[in-house]
Design brief:
Elements: E1 8-9, H1 28-31, H2 34-44, E2 69-75, E3 80-83, H3 85-91, H4 96-100, H5 115-127, E4 132-140, E5 146-158, E6 164-173, H6 175-200, E7 205-209, E8 214-217, H7 219-225, H8 229-232, E9 241-243, E10 259-266, E11 274-283, E12 287-294, H9 296-318, E13 322-326, E14 332-335, H10 337-343, H11 347-350, H12 367-373, E15 381-389, E16 395-406, E17 413-421, H13 423-445, E18 449-454, E19 459-462, H14 464-470, H15 474-477, H16 482-485, H17 493-504, E20 510-517, E21 523-534, E22 540-549, H18 551-596, H19 600-626, H20 636-651, E23 654-659, H21 668-689, E24 693-701, E25 705-712, H22 726-737, E26 741-745, E27 752-759
Parallel strand pairs: 23-24
Antiparallel strand pairs: 1-4, 2-3, 2-6, 4-5, 5-6, 7-8, 7-12, 9-10, 10-11, 11-12, 13-14, 13-17, 15-16, 16-17, 18-19, 18-22, 20-21, 21-22, 24-25, 25-27, 26-27
Helix pairs in contact: 18-19, 20-21, 21-22
Length: 779
């Protein structure tokens, strides 16, 4: 009997017995003389008569059949027993003095689960809330036993405030009665539990005889099968239950108290089988208890576990990385094939090693790492890069990921460490580091100007060559856009933006001759190569601009071209004034000689005269080409018109010139180069294409640009880059000298188109570039 099954009894049907409870300050001696106190105690310990009056003290507290009971009187003012203190202490094997020496005195003997209800009853009596109280509780005896007692109190004397001064008590030892009551309650609970198991078990319970005939089925079995108790009675168990017996046809009766477990299925009325676990138990009285448990969820869990196990086994065996399983001492217990191949050891050799034994002495993790690897209180996964040592002694860079899996009590478990070969990655990182160092060195030491620009034109980085040529330092340029930096000549900004747009559209590389400005305002001629860095989708992420200062080169080339033009003009004049005059004289003499000859000799002299005449024409044409008077005193449009007329007259081919360009090209250098480009394009067409029509066109374009275009309908040729002949290279070179974009294309309809896009120079403003201590020149 436990304390929570007992109650504090405060009997309300007890009479107040006011005649026995003196109040108003009456002393105990006056109310109850000593003989009277002993009499009260004696009357408590005497069985009440059937017709006992209600004035008998605690007459309702008497329990029949109790052998040990003690009545007592206790004085709260002096904290002493007036009657039977020794007898009460003796029930528990103590003396009153021993009990008084305990920290809580008499309360020290009370069971901790019962102390609260004892204090509640006592406080109610002390304060006057109640006149009587009953408590059943456990008290510790000196020999270690717990005695159940029933303790009844009644207030004997109270003061003027109604507080209890003396109490009359009766203690009865009820241990036998309490134990019997508890046993009875246990039996009732057990019976109720058995009934619940049989009637409300969610799975089936069957009671069968030795012939396997059903004698009883619980409600769970009836619900699962869809039968009634009457329908199943005396039917064979095999009618409703399939047992997986293997090769056996009939189930064998289990031996006495033997438990046999099988797998099978319910065979319900509706025909839908349900897989169950079957347990057979032999009972006394020639009976067998058959229980079934629905295992569909269990089977699903087992199948899931099997698949998971197969999945993880496959991951372990087929993992391309080396995997080792280890215990709490780092001893290897299992390895996968990849680790065996990686290190060249057999599984037997590896399982005789510890994880640290696999590592080379170089790049070895500290001992603290291994402590954390098997410490269940730390994070479960740890990563580190190590060097493995193969059987041949070769070092192998690897990434190690260790995970420790503690068991349920977190005191043991096993760990998994995965080694991923990163030798190729490490080599690539080292190569990348070397390449990066080389690139940095090249970037710093390169004489070419190199800059990185984002998609919005903002400068991200420049090398020292940019600082040296421009006069700006990197801090002044980084963060600004190209057009805000002052590096680009204002007239070049539209063409610069156009080149970046071409890169963004997918062009692999854009090259041009451009003009730049230094911090001091000097004009520099630069050769620019623009490329883009691209992502995996071939989208531009940034631009790399490389430029070479060719100002001095342009100056020298300009002087060279001037010298070439002057030499050609001199040769042209010499041909015209020297060879041309001689041929003219020879022609006149031959003509005179022809008039004097007759017959065959006269006809032969005529042929000689014709050859001389043709030679004179060729010398004149060559003289005009080498020293074209057409462009010496005319603008470009007029020169090109004269060229078209000459082609039409000399070559008998249709040649048309069209122009919608309002501005005149008066710069002699620019005009000369453009005329020479047109002249070379026509000569190439006549020499290789045999066209029937040639068109020369001049037109204006936006952003201060103009285009000269020469088209013909002759034969095409390979226009791909790298297939250029000398003529095309010369034209391209001349275009670069005047900062023009030159291109040759072959339209789908046939023919050839030569295009030269050049800047329109403001009238009277011929751009000039300078170098230190060099004379000015026209680019």
């Amino acid at each position: 009997m436990s304390a929570r099954h007992q109650q504090t009894h405060i009997p309300h049907d007890f009479p107040n017995r006011g005649e026995n409870v003196p109040v108003g300050g009456t002393s105990a001696e006056e109310a109850y003389p000593e003989d009277s106190l002993r009499g009260l105690v004696a009357r408590l310990e005497t069985p009440p008569t059937p017709n006992a009056s209600e004035s008998e003290p605690l007459s309702n507290a008497w329990i029949d059949g109790i052998e040990t009971r003690v009545g007592y009187i206790y004085d709260f003012a002096t904290q002493t027993f007036l009657e039977n203190g020794n007898r009460l202490a003796g029930i528990y094997g103590y003396t009153p003095e021993e009990i008084d020496s305990f920290p809580e005195r008499w309360d020290s003997l009370i069971h901790p689960d019962d102390i609260e209800i004892v204090k509640e009853g006592r406080e109610a009596l002390l304060s006057g809330e109640m006149s009587t109280a009953t408590v059943q509780m456990r008290v510790a005896c000196k020999d270690g036993r717990w005695e159940w007692i029933q303790h009844d109190w009644r207030a004997l004397t109270r003061n003027d405030q109604g507080h209890m001064i003396r109490t009359l008590g009766l203690v009865q030892v009820i241990t036998p009665l309490a134990l019997a009551t508890q046993a009875l309650r246990n039996e009732v609970s057990l019976n109720a539990l058995c009934r619940t198991l049989v009637e409300e078990w969610v799975d089936g319970i069957f009671l069968v005889d030795e012939q396997w005939r059903i004698l009883f089925a619980n409600q769970g079995a009836l619900d699962a099968l869809g039968y009634t108790q009457a329908e199943l009675h005396t039917r064979p168990i095999t009618h409703v239950l399939f047992m997986d017996l293997g090769k056996k046809k009939e189930p064998a009766l289990p031996r006495s108290f033997q438990k046999v477990t099988l797998r099978g299925a319910h065979l319900p009325k509706d025909g839908n089988r349900q897989k169950v676990e079957i347990v057979l138990r032999r009972l006394p009285g020639e009976r067998v208890l058959v229980t079934t448990r629905d295992i569909r969820e269990q089977l699903a869990a087992e199948e899931y576990t099997r698949r998971q196990a197969a999945y993880y086994r496959g991951l372990f065996e087929n993992n391309p990385s080396g995997v080792a399983v280890y215990d709490t001492t780092l001893q290897i217990t299992k390895v996968n094939p990849a680790l065996r191949r990686m290190l060249g050891y057999t599984e037997k050799q590896l399982t005789q090693m510890r994880v640290p034994d696999l590592l080379d002495n170089q790049n070895r993790p500290p001992d603290e790492f291994w402590k954390h690897v098997i410490d269940v209180s730390t994070k479960p996964r740890r990563d580190i890069e190590v060097t493995l040592k193969s059987r041949e002694g070769k070092g192998l860079y690897a990434h190690a990921a260790a995970t420790f899996l503690p068991d349920t009590n977190a005191e043991a478990g096993q760990g998994i460490i995965i080694f991923t070969d990163i030798s190729a990655r490490r080599q690539a990182e080292q190569d990348l580091k070397k390449q990066s160092l080389l690139n940095d060195t090249l970037l710093k030491e390169s004489a070419a100007m190199i800059g990185m620009v984002d998609l919005e034109g903002k400068i991200l980085k420049v090398n020292p060559a940019v600082e040296k040529v421009s006069g700006y330092n990197a801090k002044e340029l980084v963060g600004k856009t190209i057009w805000e930096s002052g590096l680009v000549d204002p007239e070049e900004l539209p063409r610069t933006m156009e080149r970046l747009k071409k890169l963004q559209a997918g062009a692999p590389r854009v090259t041009a001759i451009s003009r730049a400005r230094t911090k001091s305002g000097e004009l520099r001629i630069i050769q620019v190569h623009n490329t883009a860095t691209r992502n995996a989708n071939n989208e531009a992420e940034s631009y790399i601009i490389t430029a070479i200062d060719i100002t001095e080169q342009q100056r020298l080339q300009h002087h060279l071209m001037e010298a070439i033009e002057q030499e050609q003009a001199r040769i042209g004049h010499d041909l015209h004034d020297g060879v041309g005059q001689l041929l003219t004289g020879i022609g006149a003499l031959v003509e005179m000689l022809q008039t004097k000859l007759v017959g065959t000799e006269q006809s032969e002299a005529g042929r000689i005269h014709e050859l001389v005449r043709q030679a004179i024409q060729q010398v004149r044409q060559l003289s005009r080409n080498m020293s074209p008077a057409a462009i010496q005193n005319r603008d470009l449009a007029a020169s090109l018109q004269l060229l078209a007329d000459t082609v039409q007259t000399s070559f008998r081919r249709e040649c048309e010139f069209r122009s919608d360009l309002e501005a005149k090209i008066t710069d002699p250098t620019q005009g000369t180069h453009l005329f020479r480009i047109a002249q070379e394009a026509i000569n190439n067409a006549m020499r290789h294409g045999n066209p029937k029509k040639i068109t020369i066109a001049l037109r204006a374009e936006a952003m201060g640009q103009a285009v000269m275009e020469i088209t013909n309908n002759g034969s095409t040729f390979d226009c791909r880059p790298g297939q250029e002949g000398i003529g095309l290279r010369v034209m391209n070179y001349r275009a670069s000298l005047i900062h023009a974009d030159f291109s040759v294309t072959c339209p789908p309809g046939g023919g050839v188109r030569v295009t030269c896009k050049f800047p329109l120079l403001p009238s009277g403003d011929t751009p000039q570039a300078t170098t230190h201590n060099k004379q000015k020149y026209k680019p």
